User: What shape does this take?
Amino acid sequence: MSRTKDNKPHIGIFGRRNNGKSSLINVITGQDIAIVSEIAGTTTDPVKKSIEITGIGPAVIIDTAGIDDFGDLGQKRVMKTREVLKVIDLAILLIADNSFDEPEKQLIGDFKNHDLPFLIIHNKSDEAPLTAELATVLQERYGVPVVAFSAVKPENLEDVILLIHQQMPETVYRKQTLVGDLISPGDVVLLITPIDTEAPEGRMILPQVQVIRDVLDHAGVAVLCTEREVGDYFRKMSPRPVLAITDSQVFPRADAVIPKDIMLTSFSIVLARQKGDFENYILGTPHISNLKDNDRILILESCTHQVSCDDIGRFKIPRWMAGFTGKKLEFETVAGLSKIPRPITDYALVVQCGGCMITRKQLVNRLKPAIDAGVPVTNYGMAIAYIHGIFNRAIAPFAKNPEI
Assistant: This one.
């Protein structure tokens, strides 16, 4: 279940077969989006749909297979249902007929493991009303709203939508600035953007566009040039920039030409602060120096794209890292949100891209198994800066302790 092209809030609907998950989706959206049937197990694979929810706005809602499915095929469906937890911002657990047992308890355990906010809706309350006893037990045990509802007679639909809005984490709507806290109105930010075989024809890549917009949103002045024109800029133009942001692959050239009194970092590191686990990146990056022969490195891309010989994650970083360490290293690349092919402990280091196409929640969940297992993690930009001896300068604009 990929979320690589959609940064709107994601809501997952979970519950047993035939509890009315698809009906709930249709009622919330006011559309016949999900297939509704009296036959249990109609929804087999997670299905996502971009929608507009009154009071919430644009969102993506995901209908999942029943958590009580059985048999070999059924268990595979349940596994796919649980995979959805990695890409959503809010979970709705749908129960019915006052039934709450091990499947629901296990699912709520998964919610908590993923630090995922949720609420409980008792559907089909027109047929079997929610008992006050069950509602009280669930509210006291889990500390979340429990609401009675009927998709057939949705008299309290507005209350349900309000609860969804209230439970949605604020971080979904409130984006941390990329560079706005580093500049003042009128400040110039120099963006160094190479045009090579990886650059899309006739347009900028997403991280560059996002930084430009953030500079403009904070009344700054964005100036763009390729790495070849940086020297000319400083000879001919004024005022001097307060901050320079470069594509990671030309970090050494940028470091050489940008005066030391001007802050310098990369697009990838800027994104790492906004979306990634920045502190663990800082701690993990120096482990590059500890790599040994035959160590396996995992490269995580957040999107799928056409690969060229200039690909930074698949070719340049492996080449630079092998040259820096002098070791015979093995590299594996996983694109999008595809399953990692080995146990995470088989890797000596995880290198994550900037994550421009995904959310912070999704990226943090992607890194969590490695961090929990004690596997060092780093980021494209930080790894490149470290390899080229400019790590401290590159993180100085953001790090609590630039001398780390």
User: Anything to note?
Assistant: Residues 180-270 form a domain with the Rossmann fold fold (CATH 3.40.50.11420). The first strand starts at residue 10 and ends at 15. The CA atoms of residues 9 and 59 lie 5 Å apart. Residues 1-5, 34-44, 305-309 have pLDDT under 50 and may be disordered.
